[in-house]
């Protein structure tokens, strides 16, 4: 039996067809709000990753970057198997010498103490120059005050033969019968602080190597330029419109031209004076594949010998007795504050002189020393925060590069 087919639905007429509901059109005010929200979100994305804005993210990213950097450093270290083996053998021999009793123990201990002291100043020098301008200013915090203390002690004691130990951790005048006081000269003080000053200057030269190696590696591999090399490339782009360059950018270009055209002596000239733009010199040398020993040799001579002598002479002149008395006489002439500051400053100098002769210090400390300690803590905290921010931003760039490749 034939089943009738179900009636087919009648075709819908244009009147029966219903379009999906449409949103009312945005007015001019609505479009402006949308654009404002988009612009704000883009600005937030462009803001640098810093600790006070994203503390948890910065700590997480900086930790990841530290682990990756240590792994990369270990892999790079394993390539130099001979040097690594020699270092391990030397350390094993030193450990063995410590376990063997004998007369050599005193000499070994004094040698290790001296090397640790030199390493301390080298480390402070590295901290001062590493980080593309975010380094810890260890000359103002450590080496400068040390040279000033030695200068004041030399003029007060009439000699630089301070008892060792406790020098250099504590400066004391020798007893009257041990030494004959002579007229102190600037050359005697320069000679007294030459080792620590040279070590600090050598550390600053070592701290200039990362920008050089990073720019050199980027040029040889042809990979995407890093943060350091981007600054150099941006300067090259701005040279197309030199009239729009700022004075600071013109100074950068002058440093680049000096290093590129003069070579060794150009690097030496840049390294021999206090120069906040020297990072660009290292980037330029790495980008143009200037030999390592040409760059490092000129940097070492300029920073550890020439520049350090300039800085030492400046501090010694600033803290000699005659100039201090002249400074106090000028201090008294300041209206209102001058007469009130004279007595505290003279009392501070008198206590310092007494401490040099007696070797004792007041347990309570002074206001100036406590202020200086807090200043040092603030500087160290700023340095640590800047390192965390830099590491977190580096890891953020790693993630962005990985997403781009995927």
What's the short version?
With 406 residues, the protein is mainly α. The chain has helices at residues 28-46, 55-78, 81-99, 104-129, 138-157, 186-192, 194-207, 209-221, 227-238, 247-262, 264-271, 278-287, 292-318, 321-332, 337-358, 367-405.
Helix content: over 70%
Percentage beta strand: under 5%
Largest sheet: none
- Oligomer description: single chain
Helix/strand-derived category reads mainly alpha
Shape field: globular
Work out the helix count.
16
Estimated radius of gyration: 32 Å
Low-pLDDT segments, ≥5 res: 361-365
Q: Give the overall average pLDDT.
A: 77
**Count of extended strands:** 0
Order of helices and strands: HHHHHHHHHHHHHHHH
Query: Distance N terminus to C terminus?
Result: 65 Å
Characterize the structure shown.
This protein has helices at 28-46, 55-78, 81-99, 104-129, 138-157, 186-192, 194-207, 209-221, 227-238, 247-262, 264-271, 278-287, 292-318, 321-332, 337-358, 367-405. With 406 residues, the chain is mainly α. The radius of gyration is 32 Å and the shape is globular. Residues 361-365 have low confidence and may be disordered.
Task: Give keywords.
406 residues, 16 helices
Task: Summarize the SSE layout with pairings.
Elements: H1 28-46, H2 55-78, H3 81-99, H4 104-129, H5 138-157, H6 186-192, H7 194-207, H8 209-221, H9 227-238, H10 247-262, H11 264-271, H12 278-287, H13 292-318, H14 321-332, H15 337-358, H16 367-405
């Amino acid at each position: 039996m034939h089943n009738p087919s179900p009636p087919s639905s009648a075709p819908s007429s244009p009147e029966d067809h219903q379009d999906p509901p449409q949103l009312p059109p945005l007015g001019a005010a609505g479009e402006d709000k949308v654009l404002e929200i988009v612009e704000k979100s883009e600005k937030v994305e462009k803001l640098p990753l810093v600790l006070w804005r994203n503390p948890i993210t910065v700590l997480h990213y900086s930790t990841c970057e530290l682990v990756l950097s240590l792994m990369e450093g270990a892999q790079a270290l394993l390539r130099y198997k001979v040097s690594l083996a020699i270092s391990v053998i030397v350390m094993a021999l030193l450990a063995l010498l410590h376990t063997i009793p004998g007369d050599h123990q005193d000499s070994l201990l004094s040698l290790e103490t001296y090397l640790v002291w030199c390493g301390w100043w080298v480390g402070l020098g590295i901290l001062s120059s590493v980080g593309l301008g975010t380094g810890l200013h260890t000359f103002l915090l450590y080496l400068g005050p040390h040279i000033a203390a030695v200068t004041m002690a030399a003029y007060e004691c009439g000699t630089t033969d301070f008892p060792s130990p406790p020098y250099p951790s504590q400066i004391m005048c020798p007893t009257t019968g041990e030494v004959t006081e002579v007229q102190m000269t600037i050359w005697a003080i320069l000679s007294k602080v030459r080792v620590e000053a040279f070590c600090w200057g050598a550390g600053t030269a070592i701290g200039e190597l990362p920008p050089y190696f990073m720019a050199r590696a980027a040029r040889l591999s042809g990979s995407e330029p890093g943060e350091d090399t981007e600054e150099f490339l941006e300067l090259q782009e701005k040279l197309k419109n030199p009239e729009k360059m700022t004075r600071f950018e013109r100074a950068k270009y002058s440093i680049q031209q000096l290093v590129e055209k003069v070579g060794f002596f150009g690097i030496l000239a840049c390294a021999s004076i206090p120069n906040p733009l020297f990072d660009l010199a290292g980037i330029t040398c790495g980008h143009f594949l200037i030999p390592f020993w040409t760059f490092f040799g000129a940097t070492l001579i300029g920073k550890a010998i020439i520049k350090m002598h300039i800085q030492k002479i400046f501090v010694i002149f600033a803290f000699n007795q005659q100039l201090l008395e002249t400074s106090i006489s000028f201090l008294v002439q300041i209206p209102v504050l001058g007469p009130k500051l004279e007595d505290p400053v003279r009392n501070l100098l008198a206590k310092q002189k007494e401490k040099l002769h007696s070797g004792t210090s007041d347990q309570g400390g002074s206001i100036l020393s406590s202020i200086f300690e807090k200043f040092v803590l603030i500087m160290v905290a700023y340095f640590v925060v800047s390192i965390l921010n830099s590491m977190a931003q580096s890891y953020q760039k790693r993630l962005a590069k990985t997403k781009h490749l995927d």
